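Hi R.,

As promised, here are both runs. First protein below:
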Amino acid sequence: MDQLRFHLRFLEALIAEGWKLSAPRIGVTDFSGGRLLQTLEGSIVAPLRAEFGQSTVDLDPTRQSGRGYYGSVCFKIWVKDPAGVEVEIGDGGDVPWTQKLLSNAKERLIISAVALERLAAIRGEA
């Protein structure tokens, strides 16, 4: 949840600084066959919704991209450009890299990134 919180703080700070983007949105997807839906809603989605008033955080049951790359959970990040068009700017989720590297099935790694070139393009600086 810390990475999602960081991304939302970052985007809301850009908006507060006058960047011409709006409506940050994060869609969280459960790739576990539904086993994590209740936990994701209660522990991640609902608290972030309550904390970030300018942003939307919801479950995205329709996402298929990233299946096989991410493990049980992934997310996408979008913002709206000045024309109101939603632009995907980020992605993340759990990956098995450290489990394999350390030969430890208990090891967990969540990765994420925001494409700064997409934000620069929205701002007109690309």
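And here is the second one, sequence first, then its structure tokens:
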Amino acid sequence: MATTDGRLAIGADTSEPEAARAVRAWVDAHLPRHWIDAGRAGGASAVREVRTRAHYEAWYPVFADSGLVVPTWPVAYGGLDVSAAVARRAEAELAPFNLGRLNPLGLNLAAPALFAHGSEAQRLRFLPPIVRNAEVWCQLFSEPAAGSDLASLATRAVRDGDRWMLTGQKVWTTWAHRSDWAVLLARTDADVPKRDGITYFLVDLHQRGVEIRPLRHMGGDVDFNEVFLDDAIALDAHRVGAVGEGWTVANATLSGERQMVAGAGSGGVDRIGGLGVDNVVGRARRSDQSRDPVVRHALMRVFSEERIRDWTNQRVRAHVKAGRPPGPESSIGKVHQGGLNQRVQLLATALLGMDAVAWVGESLPPEVRGMLRSRANTIEGGTTEINKNVLGERVLGLPREPDPWRGASWRETPH
């Protein structure tokens, strides 16, 4: 059951059984037949066997038009305005068909800032194209000398009438080479303490003054980039929040990022780098290695950790669905996930045996590729060390680390 514009005809008053029936009808009417057959016979893994990435990207606007990509969002922004319970029921109906959300950085980094601090005009302009994957997003925060201490960033924004001129360098920008827009932090006042002189902008990457240079990591792929800004332009209409209050706005993005990379149950990216625990367990069974008590012990350890992580992240997700921000609690999942995924990928590589050391052909085995990619998990989305500080200070209430430059202006602080 859908409206004339393709949106599913459910809303705030829809019951869970009604939503389930509507989603099943939508699946039968809009998914390609071979996806449906594969999903109902073998679930998400079977769908991956019969569907290419290009095919899914081409079909994706149909999914976006339904409102099911972000069902709890208001209709005006591309959602269905349904309750969290109805959204979960709808997601359960969709689960066998592996309908992953494209544009995760737009959905999980840009959107939280727009919801919390953006204007209505900004939300109407940017959220629907994010949902449709029509405008792909990245995050221009980290700099060569401002990573863990992000607030010390040096990229400048100078006002020129109704626009701002941006000059500086960003680095480790995930998927910038594929992106159309970016959220960006820039310094608009050097004579106040570092967190007080930062402003948050939305920046069009397809303009003169923006240069993107890919960084190839040791797995051979390109995920990260360095971005150079030379009098690039951000319109004042694309400033989110007040001038000088970018650090407050950025916290919405950072919380969303930590939640996203925390993994399953958090509503974001399930795993950045490698196979999931269930897949590793399945491979051990198929190779009969699960009969080895040492291997069984290792599998059970990561399996148990995965379930604990999932339950913890479900609590974070429940806060978000109830209309509360993820907050510092989202760092719990991020800290656990980074180390856990590295342990999972090392185990997957160990199960591969000598084939992880030498293999036929030029392509890395997926286990090796996942292991190499997972080394970044404890760095991206805020390093594990910084997130432990967040947990200690904001969750446990421990005293802050001494800062001899606290209260000094950015210009006076050593860089």
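A quick note on the second one: Confidence is low (pLDDT under 50) at residues 262-271. Let me know what you think.

Best,
J.
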